[in-house]
Amino acid sequence: MNIFLQRSFLLILMVVVSLPATAFPVLAQDAPASDSQAADPQEPASTYGESAAPTAKRAALSRAPWSQEILDEVARWPIQHGGRVKPFQTFAGFLMLKANGRRTLKLDDEKLDPVAWALDFMFYPEVAKQYRCIHVPNAEVLTGIGFDTTNFRRSDRYSFDQLEPVLPTLFDSARRTMQAKPESKEWTLVERQTIQLMQDIREMEVLLYSMDSARKTFGLNTVEELTAIFGENPAPGYSPILQHIDQMAELTDRENLLAIPEDRRPAVIEALRSLQEDLIRSLEISGMGYNWFPPEEVIQTEENLPVVWTTSSEVIQEALVMKSTEERGKALYSLERLPYLLDDRPQFLAEATNFGTTLRNLAATQDSGRHISTEVSFYNMDYFTKALVLFLLGFIVSCLGWLAPQSGAPKKLTWILSLSGVVMLIAGVTIRCVIQGRPPVTTLYETILFITGCCVLTAQALEYYDRRNIALTVSTFLGALGCFLSNRYELKEAVTAGDTMPSLVAVLDTNFWLSTHVTTVTLGYAAGLLAAAISHVWIFSKMLGVKKSDPGYYKSLTRMVYGTLCFGLFFSIVGTILGGIWANYSWGRFWGWDPKENGALMICLAELIILHLRMGGYIRDRGVHVLSVLNAMIIAFSWWGVNLLGVGLHSYGFTDGIFKLLAGFFALEMIVMGIGLFQKSGGGKEPPAPPAESAATG
Amino acid sequence: MSSSNPSFWDSRFIKSLGSLGLAALMMTFLLILTFLGTMDQTNMGIYQAQKKYFESWVVLDAWAPSGMPMIPLPGGMLCMIIFTANLLVGGILRLRLNKNNLGVFVIHVGIALMMSAGLVKLLAGQDGYLRLWENQKASEYISHHEWEISVFEADTGEVTEKTLHERFWRGRDTLTLAPAEGVPFFLNLEFLHGNCRPQQVTAGEAIPEGTVVIDDWYLKSETMDPENERNMPGLVAWIHKGPEDREAGREGRTFLWGGQNYPWAFQHEGKTWVVAIRKVRHSMPFTIQLDNFEKVDYPGITMAKEFRSDVTQISEGGRRNVRIEMNDPLRDQGLILFQSSWGPPDAKPGDELFSVFAVVHNPSDHWPLYSCIIIALGMGLAFVQKFLAYGRRQSKRLQQEAA
User: Is the N-terminal amide bond of B344 cis, ω within 30° of 0?
Assistant: First the structure.
C-alpha cells in the first residue's frame, strides 16, 4: 500500500479512534469537506437488500450462461495490465491461453470463450474452481510438487480444486528456485515450467478473488452513529464508505467525538477501531487487484510518460485524503453491484455498461485506451486464422491446377485466394501497428507475420513477371506455413510475455530505427527464405523429373532465385548496416559481435558468396540452389537460433522451447541439400557455367 | 580503373589477389569464423570470443560440437585484411568501369569505407564508462576491460602518476621497471592470474606448488569468466633501490589484486608512495556533473520505459545543461556519452540511483552512415539494372509464347 496514502488515511480516520476511549490527548484535525464525492447512486439498501446473500450463495453453486450482449460489453472494459491499457478480452484471452494452452474451454453443454471464462472466475468462483483449464504438459512438474500423475497424459487439464492441495508445495518450490537461480536462463525445463505454473495460478487467484471486496460486508451498522450514516442494512463493498466519506470524516471529527456521551464513547471508538482494522486488511488485499481505474485528474506528464491507473484500494485511499474520486466512485459502485445482479441479467448488462463507459470516458481524458474497440474487433476478426485458411485453400487449388495445366481456372482461383490471404494478413498487421503505434516488427511473433507477408508479396510479384504458376504456388505455401507458425508461436509469446503486444525495453522504443533497421533486415530474411523455397522446387523437380522437356522451366527457377537473392542481399546489407548505425548512435559501437549481429552478417556473407561464386563461374544452377537452401538454414539460425544461446544484447528476443523445431528444420534442409547435391539430373539440362569475368570483382 | 603500369596490374599475383574466387574463399572463412565465434560465446563470452576469432591471425582451437575434431582456421584479422585487399584490387582498382558495373563499383567503395571505419575505430578509438551519482562530477572515464598499474606519491598535493598498461605485464613472469623521473625505485611486477581471488591458507589445505603465499594469504586462480568485466587479475609487486637490495626487497612483497578496495601504500625515503591496479582511465576534455537521474517504469511492471540523465557539462568555455537519454547521446569534442544503464541493480523504489554512461571516442563515428548510403545507392543501381533486364526478357518471352 502506498505509504503516503496509508499515512494520510491513518491521519484522517484512524489516529482518533486508536486513542484511549476515555481521554483524547491528541484529537483529529478538522477534515476539509469534499465537494467531489461519489455520485449519489440509488439507495444501497434497496439495491442489495436482504436478497444479496442468497444471490451470492446461489452463485457459488451454479451458473447461468452469459448472454452475448454481456460478453460483448465486458470484452470492451479497459484495464491497465502488463504496462499498457488493453481491453478485458485481450487480458482474459492471454491469461486463458497461458493457463489452458488454448483460447476456449469446452464444458458439457457450452464452449467458453476467454471473457465468459474470466467472468465465471470473477462471479462464480466456486464453479470456476472446478474447470479443468490448467494445462501442465510435463508430468515431472506435477510429481515434483507431490501431485499424483498416474495415467498422466500431456493433453490433460487440471482444475483449481484438483491442484489446491499441492499449491503450497508449488509456491515453495518456485520460490526456492527463483532464490537459488535469479537468472531465468539458468532454470532447467522442469524448473521453468514449475515457475510458469506458479505464475499462472497466482494470476488466476487474482481473478478468482477479484470480487471478494464487493462481497465483503464491513461493520457499518454496529453502533447507532454508524447506522445513522449507512442505514440499518448497508450494502457490502467499498461503495457505501466512498459515498459517505464526508459523514465519516465528520463523525471522526474531534468536536463530534467529544460530543458523544461518555457512556457511549467507548463503544463508538471500538466500532471505529474494528472498522479500521477490517478496512486496512481489505484494502491491502484489494491493492493487489486490477488497475481498472484511470486517475481523474488530467496528469500532465513529461514526454508522454505513462499514466498509472489505480486499483479499487487506491480509489478508497485517495478518497480518504479528499482527492477527487467521483467518476471512479461511480465505476466502483457499478462493479460492486454486479455479483448481486447475476439473476437479473438485463440489470447486470446495464451496470457492466456503466462500469465500462465510465472507465473509457475517464481513460479518454488521459488520452489513453483509444484503441480498445479496435483491439477487440481485431481479435474477433481473427485475421491470421482467416489468412491461413485462404492460403491453405489456395495451395490446394494450385496443386490441383498442376494436374490440369491447360485449365486457367485453378490459376485464377489461386490468385484470388493468395491475394485475399495477403490482404487479410496485411490488414491484421496494419491494425496491430495502429493499436501499438509502432512498426510491426518488435517481437518474434510479429516478425513471423511480417516476413510471411513479405514472402507472399514478393512471390506474387515474381509470378506477375514469370507467369509459370511456380511462384504463385510457393506464395500460398509460404503464406499458409507462416500463418500456421505464427498461430503456434502466439502461445509461446503468451507464456513468456503474457501478450503479443508487450511493452518495449527503453532502447527499442524508437519508431525511426524500428521502422528502418528491423523492417529492412526482416525483408532480407523474407527474400532469402523465398529464394530457398523456390530452390526446393528446383531440387524436387529435378529429383522427380518434372518438365524434363522444358529447360525454360529450370532456367526460370534459377533466375527467380538469383533475382530474389539479389533483392534479399540489398535489404540484408542495408538492414545490417542500419542496425550497426543504430547501435553506434545508441550504445556507442557500430559492431559488437553480438550473436544477433553475427547472424545478420552471416546472411550477408552467405548471399554474397553465392553471387560471387555464380559470377565467377565456380557454381552453376545446382550450386545456386543448394547454397540457397544453406542460406535458409543460416537465416533460421539468425532469426531463431541465436536467441537460444542466451548471450548478447538482443535479450528481448530470447525464447525457449524451439530447439527441437529448429533442429528438425536443419535436419530436413540437410537432406534437401544432399538430394540437390547428389541426385542425377532428372530433368532439364544444366546450363553451361557462365565464363568467369576477365576483370574479376571482389 | 585504368592503370599506368599494365604489366603490374595484369600480373598473376594481382589477378589472383583481386579474383572472385579469393573473395568467395575469404567470405567463406569469415562466415565459418562468425558462426564458430558466435557458438563459442556461450563458453567464453563476447569479449574473449571477439579476441579469439575476430581480432586474431589464426584460430587453432576453434569451437566444435562435442566429439568433432577442432580444425585450425585463419583468424578474422587475417581474413579481413586479405578480403579488403581483394576488394580494393578486384572491385575498385582493376574494375573496368562501364555503365553496367557502375553499381558494383559504388558498392565496393561503400564496403571499403565501412571496413576502413572499423580499422580506424580499432586503431584510434577508445571506450569506457562513467558512473555518477547525483551531484557527483568526473572528468575521466574508465575502460571496460583494460587494466593498468598506477604509481604515484601520495604526500604531495598534486598527484603526478605513472601508469603501465596491462599489455606490458599481463602474462609475463617478472617485469622490473627501472627508476624514472619522479619514481626513485625499481618496481617489480610478477603476473599471477587473469582471474583470481585472495584466500587465506587454512590448516591442512593443499596449495599448488609454487604458489606465492604472503602473510598466510594467496591468490587462488579461477577460470576466466565469460563476462570479462568480472575477471580480476592478480600480481605480486615489490620494490628495491638497486641491484644490491633486490633480494631483500622481495621480503616486502605484496599482492596487487583487481578487486581490492585500497591500493598498496608504502614508505620510501620518507615519502608515502602508492601502487594500485585499476581499470585504465581516460581523461575527458570537460567535466560532467550529474544533476538528476530519472528512471520511469511501465505501469505495473518492473521494465524501464525510459531512463535519462540531466547533466551539466563544464568546460573552459563555460557550463551548459544537457539531457542524455536512450538514443540521444551527448556529442562534443570527439567524445560521445551515451545513457547506458543505472544501478544499483537491487535498488528498491525510492532508493537513490546512479547513472552509467558509455563513453566513446571514435574518429570514424559517422563513416558507417556514409558507407550505408553509398552501398544502398550502389546496390539499388546494380539491382535495378538487372531487374529491368529481367523484366525485358520476361515480356519478350511472354510475347513469344503468346505469338
Answer: yes
- Asked if B64 is an interface residue toward chain A (Cβ–Cβ < 8 A), one would say no
The torsion angle over the Cα atoms of residues B253, B257, B260 and B266, rounded to 10 degrees, is 30
**Distance between CA atoms of residues A284 and A1, nearest Å:** 6
- The residue from A146, A178, A210 where one domain ends is A210
Q: Please, what is the average pLDDT of chain A?
A: 85
CA–CA distance, A642 with A597 (Å, rounded to integer): 10
With contact defined as beta carbons under 8 Å apart, do A551 and A685 qualify?
Answer: yes
Q: How confident is the model at residue A485, as a pLDDT?
A: 93
Coil, strand or helix at A373: helix
CB contact under 8 A, A698 and B394: no
Judge whether A13 lies within some domain. no
Which chain B residue's Cα is nearest to A631? Answer: B31
Rounded CA-CA distance A267/A280 in Å is 20
Report how far Cα B40 is from the mean position of its chain's Cα atoms: 18
Whether A693 and chain B come into contact, CB under 8 Å, resolves to: yes
CA atoms within 13 A on the CB side of A241: 30
Strands A157-159 and B58-59: unpaired
Q: B117: which 3 cell numbers?
A: 571505419
pLDDT per position as a tens digit, B76-91 = 999 999 999 999 998 8
Its pTM stands at 0.82
Asked, for residue A653, whether it belongs to a domain, the answer is yes
Q: Any idea what DSSP says for residue A291?
A: B
Q: Which amino acid is at A397?
A: V
Of the three residues A210, A228, A255, the one that is the final residue of a domain is: A210
Chain B CB contacts of A465 below 8 Å: 390-391, 394
Dist CA B212 CA B200 (whole Å): 12
Quote the distance between the C-alpha of residue A441 and its chain's center. 15
Cell matching residue A319: 478518497
Do the domain assignments include residue A557?
A: yes
Of B184, B188, B216, B187, nearest to B200 by C-alpha is B216
Q: Within a domain: residue A620?
A: yes
Burial class (CB in 10 A: 0-12, 13-18, 19+), A401: buried
Nearest CA-CA partner of A541 in A683, A668, A657, A652: A683
Sole residue written with cell 510438487: A145
Of residues A306, A595, A618, nearest to B305 (C-beta): A306
Task: For strands A157-159 and A132-135, give the pairing.
Answer: antiparallel
For B150-179, write each residue's pLDDT tens digit.
998 887 756 678 889 998 888 888 888 888
Cα atoms found within 13 Å of the Cα of residue A202, Cβ hemisphere only:
13
Q: Please give the residue range of the domain that contains residue A126.
A: 55-210
Residues 363-422 of A with CB under 8 A from B: none
Q: Provide the shortest C-alpha distance from residue B361 to chain A (in Å).
A: 9
Note the pLDDT tens digit of each residue in A169-178: 999 999 999 9
Q: How far apart are CA A95 and CA A399, in angstroms?
A: 39
Sketch the domain layout of chain B as residue ranges.
6-124+366-402, 126-138+282-361, 147-280
* Domains: count for chain A: 2
Report how far residue A173's alpha carbon sits from residue A188's, in angstroms, rounded to the nearest whole number.
Answer: 13
CB atoms within 10 A of CB B393: 12
CA distance A611 to chain B (A): 9
Q: By the 8 A CB rule, do A625 and A558 touch?
A: yes
Q: How confident is the model at residue A369 (pLDDT cuts 50, 70, 90)?
A: confident
What residues contact residue B243 under an 8 Å CB cut-off, 6+ apart? none
Closest CA to A75 of A356, A340, A491: A356
Identify whether the C-beta of residue A577 lies closer than 8 Å to the C-beta of residue B114. yes
Distances (CA, A) of B273 to A282, B196, B215: 65, 25, 21
Residue count of chain B: 403
Residues of A (616-645) whose Cβ lies below 8 Å from B = 616, 618, 637, 642, 645
